[in-house]
């Protein structure tokens, strides 16, 4: 990635609309790597302070202690054409993070879920959250050098995915497979939107 | 323009001082990916405008998303949403549309996204 100075940080004035895709997954799964592989700008980071009631039952003083944590979100940008820009937000999948960035998921085209086959169980939380929210998603399997390779069907079964949820293999460090994973997602969203429209017309 | 690293991070209180106690913007239409640009010709800010409001308007002298402006200014997005919303209301900033909430993206828009991504391969 070519680093951009402040003079190049701006969008062309012709851009009229922004769309977004969320890139979610467990810690260390390659979210920021994928965003960096496809972004036209050096990925940027934004932070929020999260206040959490501490979990503990033996609170003799009867006081609710709270802890604050700083949580970061990395994001990147792709100018798709002269009028349209795409933002990619890399975020942990747990609900408390989405609530933190109020409005993060609203209006998103869809979600790319990155999984690591060495730690599949880390993805269960994320997938459950997406199914609850009804957001269309595609699973991108980030292949690490020491990960065993599994077939898409095997993974679909292990992750208990619906039959039509796309599963793609990916190397988040490389631009082409990362772009392909995004294309799979948008194709899937297109077909979903088409199906919903057809049902609405029929009824 | 912005304070030293982590100036606000040490305290969750400071953002609420900057926003005069509010945690929510006045309008819900300013998404984190909303595209912002300063009014042209520029409108002078009132003398009561905060340092952060001035910095945000200056940052948006050309087209930039809200979340990028927040990252460059090293301010929390939640805070910049409140400030941007006020500044749009007062006519100092213009916001360009993102997809309205709870609306299915149009197939034409999705096709544009696909075409744009395919050009990257």
From TrEMBL, chain A:
<keyword id="KW-0547">Nucleotide-binding</keyword>
<protein>
    <submittedName>
        <fullName>ATP/GTP-binding protein</fullName>
    </submittedName>
</protein>
<dbReference type="Pfam" id="PF03029">
    <property type="entry name" value="ATP_bind_1"/>
</dbReference>
<dbReference type="InterPro" id="IPR004130">
    <property type="entry name" value="Gpn"/>
</dbReference>
<comment type="similarity">
    <text>Belongs to the GPN-loop GTPase family.</text>
</comment>
<dbReference type="InterPro" id="IPR052705">
    <property type="entry name" value="Gliding_Motility_GTPase"/>
</dbReference>
<dbReference type="InterPro" id="IPR027417">
    <property type="entry name" value="P-loop_NTPase"/>
</dbReference>
<keyword id="KW-0378">Hydrolase</keyword>
<keyword id="KW-0342">GTP-binding</keyword>
Automatic annotation (TrEMBL), chain B:
<dbReference type="InterPro" id="IPR007995">
    <property type="entry name" value="DUF742"/>
</dbReference>
<protein>
    <submittedName>
        <fullName>DUF742 domain-containing protein</fullName>
    </submittedName>
</protein>
<dbReference type="Pfam" id="PF05331">
    <property type="entry name" value="DUF742"/>
</dbReference>
């Amino acid at each position: 990635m070519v680093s951009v100075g402040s003079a190049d940080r701006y969008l062309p004035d012709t851009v009229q609309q922004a769309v977004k895709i969320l890139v979610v997954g467990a810690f260390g799964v390659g979210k920021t790597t994928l965003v960096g592989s496809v972004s036209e700008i050096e990925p940027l980071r934004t932070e929020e302070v999260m206040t959490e009631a501490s979990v503990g039952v033996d609170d003799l003083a009867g006081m609710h202690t709270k802890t604050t944590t700083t949580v970061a979100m990395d994001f990147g940008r792709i100018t798709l054409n002269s009028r349209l820009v795409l933002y990619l937000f890399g975020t942990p999948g747990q609900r408390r993070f989405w609530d933190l960035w109020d409005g993060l998921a609203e209006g998103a085209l869809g979600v790319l879920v990155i999984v690591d086959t060495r730690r599949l169980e880390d993805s269960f939380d994320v997938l459950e959250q997406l199914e609850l929210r009804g957001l269309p998603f595609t699973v991108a399997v980030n292949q690490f050098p020491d990960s065993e390779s599994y077939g898409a069907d095997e993974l679909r079964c292990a992750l208990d995915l619906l039959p039509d949820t796309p599963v793609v293999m990916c190397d988040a460090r490389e631009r082409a497979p990362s772009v392909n994973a995004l294309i799979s997602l948008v194709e899937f969203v297109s077909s979903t939107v088409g199906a919903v429209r057809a049902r609405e017309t029929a009824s | 323009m912005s304070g030293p690293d982590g100036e606000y991070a040490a305290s969750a209180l400071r953002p609420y001082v900057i926003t005069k106690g509010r945690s929510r913007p006045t309008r819900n239409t300013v998404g984190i990916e909303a595209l912002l640009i300063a009014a042209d010709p520029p409108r002078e800010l009132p003398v009561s405008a905060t340092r952060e409001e001035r910095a945000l308007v200056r940052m948006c002298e050309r087209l930039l998303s809200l979340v990028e402006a927040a990252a460059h200014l090293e301010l929390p997005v939640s805070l910049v949403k409140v400030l941007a919303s006020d500044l749009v209301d007062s006519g100092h900033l213009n916001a360009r549309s993102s997809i309205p909430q709870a609306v299915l993206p149009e197939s034409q828009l999705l096709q544009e996204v696909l075409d744009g991504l395919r050009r990257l391969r």
